[in-house]
Amino acid sequence: MCRPPPKPRDDDATDDTEATHQSKRSRTKSLADQPPTPCELNRRAGNDEARVEKIAGAVSTILEALGEDRTRPGLQQTPKRLAQLLVDCTSGYARRLDEVLNGAVFEETYSEMVVVRDIALYSLCEHHVVPFHGKCHIAYVPNGRVLGLSKLARIAEMYARRLQVQERLTQQIAQAVQDACEPLGVGVVVECSHMCMCMRGVRAAGSSTVTSAVLGSFRSDFRTRQEFFANISMGARTL
Ligand SMILES: [Zn+2]
Fold first, then answer.
1. Residue 183 Cα to ligand 1 middle (Å)
2. Fewer CB within 10 Å, N- or C-terminus of the chain?
3. Is 198 a catalytic residue?
């Protein structure tokens, strides 16, 4: 099992005052920004090749158990291909919020809601290890600092590239935006179609699952929440 080592995380890459740094250090460590686990450090050490080999071996076993001929031409490279795909689709474990932000937090007096709609999301359901995909809408009300707009999509991607459940993914994105620029509030809505629902069991093809997370003023102020939901529903498109 991989447990987070007991060391404090680095602060975000911004040039704040020492007082701000101190207030950040005293902040409760959030769900979204844990320090790297030993597994993450192993991944960062460039040990991908050994991991691909190990996963490929397991995939070969699965193909055999399915009654397949692993030597037929179409399957010969499948174990390695799937192993590389899985390593790529879970590469978000090795990323950290401060790396993703890369200093793109800017002092600004803009104080109205910032909304980025329709961010594409591709993730893997941790219960079946099959894809779920869809889109994400992220909004926040700045409190003196704004994020580079592309960073919102990068944050969503960092958490999507892990084994996930949609509910946790939604919360992690919201908490990361909160940690990144300490806004007055954050709202996140994720809408996804899950292959484990579409391909098996209830075969709910065409269904989508919607989850939301609201923090700060989005939670406490009905009008802020209403503005957010009105904004994202204006541009609503089917998956
Ligand atoms: Zn599933």
1. 33
2. N
3. no
